[in-house]
Design a protein that fits this description.
The protein is α+β, with helices and mostly antiparallel strands. It has helices at about 35, 40, 55-60, 120-150, 165-175, 190-200; strands at about 15-20, 20-25, 75-80, 85, 90-100, 105-115. The strands form 2 sheets. The chain has a 4-stranded antiparallel beta sheet, with no helix packed on it. It is globular and about 60 Å long.
Length: about 200
Amino acid sequence: MCRDKTEFGLIPLDLEIWMGLIFVRFRSGPQPTVAELMQPVEAIRMPGRCWSVRNYIRLAPEPKRLPEHLKKAWIYYGIFPNMVISAMPESVQFCQEFPLSTGETLLRGAIYRYADESREQAAARNLSFRIDRETMSEDVQLSVWSNESMMSEAFSSFYLSDLEYGVRTHHDHLRAMLPVLELSEAPDDREMWNVNEAMRSRG
């Protein structure tokens, strides 16, 4: 008896391509598209946090492609829950984190440059990468120390600076998506999803 092959096909997934990056969503939902989320970046109108790094400013060429207010700007844009896209005059990079266990996380990313990159642009890109690498090494070490402190029986909590807007916003999103984390005792594993959904529906 011949059956329709589509009955036994792969499960379809939501897929979207934005600026050459491929995004896959395993469960459809009410979330906006990536293009909608990233419209401020695509239109180059998003206000960003700018750093005046003396050597970088001295070395970086004048990027004629960009409007005046973005010629020295480094812009970081977070996509909840685990992705950051950073745009600089000479390059764009992304970074993603995938939790593997309670004590291990996979970090991956890539850096993109102009196809017709000049020597000056390459030098500025390499310098900005070195600055980012130093900053990331500080963040990694802080994560190690934080996780070590959380293993102590004396640990109760710790405070982050109000300047850590990205971290705070991430946790605000987590609290909204997972209100079950606010309970003093964890529900049974089999009931975790139902309890969380009930708490979310109550708002």
